[in-house]
Amino acid sequence: MPFQFQFDSANKILLLRVEGRLTEESFAEGYRAIRTYSTSTDASAGIWDLSSVTELTLSPEFISEVAGIGPAMPDPTRRPRFLVAPPMLGLSVSRMVEITEGPKNPLFKIVLSLNEALAVLGVQSPHFEPLA
């Protein structure tokens, strides 16, 4: 499995770290798991860290399809979400995600690092622990 969920219970931040090859199948599996974990933890923010992705095989059609499903975390007007997009992800893919997510996720932001996302949230010393 190319992803791992972690949670900072003090700040109620759900973190998804993705490593290696990210395919449409693994993305869909992670997207479903985000819904489960964000609900069970009552996370108030989410960070999807793709900085360790080595290969990305998501088509523009797939990104649009996922955007049509709706936000992975409930209540997008209350819960900020961040996508840590490495340079490898490319400006065009990042921009496509931002455009498709924007209207449904007003608090969605693409950032270049985990530290940037934490700074926007005002969190200085997170304590993430793995979720089973």
Tally of alpha and pi helices: 4
Class by alpha and beta content: alpha/beta
Which range best describes the helical content: under 10%, 10-25%, 25-40%, 40-55%, 55-70% or over 70%?
25-40%
Task: Give the end-to-end Cα distance, rounded to a whole number of Å.
Answer: 13 Å
CATH homologous superfamily assignment: STAS domain
Give the rounded overall mean pLDDT: 84
- Note the beta-strand portion: 25-35%
CATH topology: Transcription Regulator spoIIAA
Low-confidence stretches: none
Spatial arrangement of strands, main beta sheet: 5-4-3-2-1-6
CATH A-level architecture:
2-Layer Sandwich
Query: How large, in whole angstroms, is the Cα Rg?
Result: 13 Å
Largest sheet: 6 strands, mixed
CATH top level is: Alpha Beta
Order of helices and strands: EEHEHEHEHE
Number of strands: 6
Number of domains: 1
**Shape designation:** globular
Written description of the protein model:
The chain has about 130 residues and is of the alpha/beta class. It has 4 helices and 6 strands. The chain has helices at about 25-40, 60-70, 90-100, 115-120; strands at about 5-10, 15-25, 45-55, 80-85, 110, 130. The chain is globular and about 35 Å long. The model has no long low-confidence stretch (mean pLDDT about 85).
